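question for whoever is on the cluster today: can someone run the full assembly for these? two chains, 1086 residues total. i dont have access anymore since they changed the login thing
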Amino acid sequence: MSARRLPGGGQIDRSRLLNFKWDGKQYQGYAGDTLASALLANNQQLIGRSFKYHRPRGIMSAGVEESGAIVTTGEGDRREPNVKATSQELYEGLLASGQNAWPNVRRDMGAVSGWFSRFFVAGFYYKTFMGLPPFEWGKGTGIWMQYEKLIRKAAGMGQASREPDPDHYDHAHAFCDVLVVGSGPSGLHAALTAARAGRDVMLVEQDFEIGGDYLNQSDAALISRRAEIIAELEQAGVRIMNRTTAFGLYDYGTAGLLERVSDVAMAANPHLPRQRFWTVRAGATLLATGALERSVAFANNDRPGVMTAAAAGVYLNRYGILPGQQIVVATNNDSAYTVAAELASAGASVELVDARAAVSAQQREVAALAGVQTRYGCAPLAVQGSKTVQGVTLANNGGAGWQAGDLMQCELLLVSGGWSPVVNLLSHRGIKPQWDPAQTCFLPVESAENIAMAGSAAGVWNLAACEQSGSAAMASLLGLAASHRSIVAGGWDNPIEPLYEVRIGEQRVKSFVDQQHDVTSDDIRLAHQEGFVSVEHLKRYTTLGMATDQGKMGNVIGMALMADALGRDISQVGTTTFRPPYTPVSIGALAGPNTGAHFRALRRTPMHNWNLANGATMTEAGLWQRSWYHARDAETISQAYVREAETARSSVGICDVSSLGKIAVQGPDASEFLNRVYSNAFAKLPVGKARYGIMLRDDGLVMDDGTCWRLSENDFLMTTTTSNAAKVMVWLEELLQLRWPDLKVHVSSVTDQWASVSVAGPQARAMIAACVEASTAVDNNSLPFMGVRAGKLNGGIDCLIARISFSGEMAFEIFVAAGFGPAMMELLWAAAKPLGGCLYGLEALGALRIEKGHVTGAELDGRVTIDDAGLGKMASTKKSYIGSVLRQRPELMREDRPRLVGIFPKDKASTFNAGALICQPDKVAGFGEGWITAVTHSPVLGHWIGLGYVAGGHESWAGRDLLATDPVRRGNVEIEVVSPHMVDPKGERMHG
Amino acid sequence: MLRIKCPFCGERDHSEFSYGGDGSIVYPALDAPMQDWVEAVFQRENIRGMQTETWQHVNGCRTWLLVERDTMTHEIRSVRAAHPGVAKALEGSS
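^ ran it for u. tokens below:
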């Protein structure tokens, strides 16, 4: 083949030469080229290797439907596999290489698999490796998995970069009255109609140039019409987005767009994102998405040098390339005549073979005027040549099927098997397109939503009619005109003749239906033979249409062949449902900016910086950053937390607990509300007192726990666990708005408004006394256990002080307005230091609460009852509350339910893991008798301890041996279960 | 993507809202017999067609809403505040 760039013509900018590399060699193209057109201009034919058989492949199309010229671009961390050369814009320095081939696409060792291709039919892997001996000798799956690895290595596409993506991606949002998808003749006219009617219009085009099929015309008048319309649209303020694919349509006029920022723009501004993922809410949507030309199945129809007829027209008119010198055009419809004539006029020797017996005189004249030889009743039977096209053997239609005909020499075979409107986006809305036998294609049907289709996407084949169709469809969509049914599908002088496959008798050849996935027409017949008669099954068994192109070129042929095998009409076989995305969307674009540290929100306490300045190592607790431990000198985390816990028990420790959820519950019915929400009594909680409360869900299981402080008659402050703060807030709002609208209560989240610390230890009271003004008494009478008071820290900082203990020590929680958090820490820390106190973090907090058997999220995991958690006696028996009825379900009352226990290792030097199962020594199987939720080294006891759940509770297992079993980590450890209250069970320390 | 017309904030993406559940359930009194609670909490119709559901405008005004939505087509027929007093106040203001 001898493709070459013509000295003039095309929509490329010949003043701007661009250098690019293909498979390591330097080439040149022009601005306005695609990678495919630049390769073609340099007469590069063999671009890819096929998925399964490693067959040589070339450029087959000029757009997103490409199945042959699939390449890898970039290198290192910017390597991108499976790029369609036909839609990749050329830019200076572009690197591209062939893929799925070794050492390269021209000389690919993997092509040996083609020799065995007779065996690689549909379902081959399953049949071979899963059914036959030795693969079914009991270990079939294991052996299959070994083979699968080898097969996967041999078959496949390009390799993605394994390095982190250096580029960033953005998410963007937009609204418009009308979204027009596609900027060809119908799209531009539709946008113009809407703009003239004063609508806010967005026009999106996947190509880097606006204009669609206008760009592929040789008529200068049409080229300038395009420019005039674009100018008017810009003047009217229409948002025109090129390089932007509408990849999916969703409910309520929502469209997903993928905008590719050009490499030229990115080079100029490194802060630009590589891609933008747009969510557009459109009042109405007009789809002018065009149509794609189909091929025909015949022997070796995948050779480099076989392409669609329209593609050749695009390369000629848009890119100024004559794609071959000696050309055969094979068609079954009128559309290829113009292309044939234009190629001949550009200097090629062109012969046209038409499957139809005859066409009109005008149509014949189109060919004759340009010197194109024509033959009728002929179609291509087999391509000759192994890596290029040497010629094509024709088949003649003798009335009773095809018969072998002449061999025609040629180097480029152009095929037009008809056109398939791009109905994909409408299909995303759940609308099945309908088969139209006259146009031999699936046509869109009316949508009940504000969506319309126009132009060749609606089966209109003639450019002038497409322009009218765009205007009319938009007028109707906007209610400016009654109906646009005056523009009907069709537009050719001579009817198309259905042609999907050309073969003689039962001849077995490699004729491809889905070129990207190497699905042949024999595969379709085999699938039918084996009983896969539904298109959905056919698709999954043969993988027809499951490649990255979703069967844009092959689906209709596949369905026609299946219909033929079934002896039915295509309309009865139906079509598979297209789903988003229309073309692949990168994971990077979906993720947008939400990666790494930006993956989710980050919450810091008001004392975050103060904690860091005072030696905190941070850890994540949900969204929060919390102090994990405050190491001194070269302490390890284990040394640090044990020291911190010891200090809190012997002197005093300070812990930032600002992440606790806080909800203000206010109003005349607040105490009634809380009384219904909490399982324990709240109605009689006196002002100035706090109470530990447990709330249940409707189904009687524990939702959350925390304390609730009565600040005044109608003013309560509720605390929740850090992880459930948002959930509890939503729950309270639901109850007040949906279930008990008569209650006069207002709830507001005040988590971020308060900075809070816990001060725990025998010296806690003395320490706080040193930090408060004289009027704020904290002695045992003024502030007894569970007492709450307002007061002032030194310097006049307003505060709330509650005597609450999570650690089991005498402890206080002090709340100040968030902005005073650091000042409070300064005060407290200065008072703690002389007492030998410490700052402690989450790890020590955990150790202290595990020693006491206090539960947190690990224990309240949504599956436990209040009794399971050992808190049943706190639940009121005198009132009804949320969950009070369903917690009495028989299953939840069983004595042998898992109950909270403490866990000691038998050998006090040993340890065990959280998450381990608890089993009897002779029954290490199944789910065991329970599980371990939390483990720590207890400074008080001097050995490792844990909390967990064991069937029936610790009393049932007293004196019996159990194992903590953790097969994948530590194995079995002998344990005993004890009361969960492992330290100070009577609570003397905190009451002191 | 659904678009939900919040009676307080206006039309917004459904990602601003969180789904609650079946809006037709009348929860029994807290001391009602267990059978009533089992019915209310565990028994659900799997409706094909129009159903009333609760949504909260959780990333907006935090109003709980009663939404009539067709489970087949996603058509939303009506949206109103679940709290009768709030619903009445919003009707009066619009």
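summary bc i know u wont read the tokens: The longest strand of chain B covers residues 50-56. Chain B has a mean pLDDT of 94.
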